[in-house]
Specification:
The chain has one domain. Helices cover 76% and strands 0% of the residues. It is built from 8 helices and no strands. α1 packs antiparallel against α2 and α4 packs antiparallel against α7.
Amino acid sequence: MDSSVVISILLILLTSALLVVTGLKKQPGLGVIGALIVIILATWLRGRNLASLGLSTPGNWLTTILLGLALGALLQLISVAIVEPLSERLTHTPHDLSLLANVKGNWKAFLQWMLMVWILVALLEECVYRGFLMHETAWLLGTSALPTIINVLSSSAVFGLSHGYQGRSGILSTGVIGILLAIIFVWNGYNLWLLIFTHGFIDTVGIGLIALDWDKRFRHLIWRETAV
């Protein structure tokens, strides 16, 4: 087997392990930082640039941002109204959102979260989960139908498991949203900027709903009962 293939497989396994283990141990930030160090070193040592992660300049910034806003808001509303309630019914456990407990009615905390989301979470997570893992897997397997399906499902499984700090329901619902994000990534020609804005707006709408205490109200409108 070619050495570059072996290295690529090891990089995917190492990065995935870092993300999953730290997520299950409720230390997701350490996993993302560790994965980024691995990715930066690998990119530099192999003579690649940011374009290899999908960070090529989009054709139109305004269109990309607006589409990201529309997709992000839509995906978050689908998640709150459908994906999360179904996940809780399937796993018989509620989502563990204790990390966001201080944001309800606290606009200072909300603004702090927004800085974190837009400076760190949206950009860094997308560079890791879609930009690196999916590009690396596409390089290994190709981009025909079956390899793309494997790519979408495997990256989304890592995405879901690395959110293990949200409990079993969080793993399932995040994995489903990961599949949708991965599909958008493929549809957008493996360019990352649309995903960065989509992810940012997903978190903005989601945390905003929690801050206003509208997330449970919204679910009640759909299910006509309180969340599990």
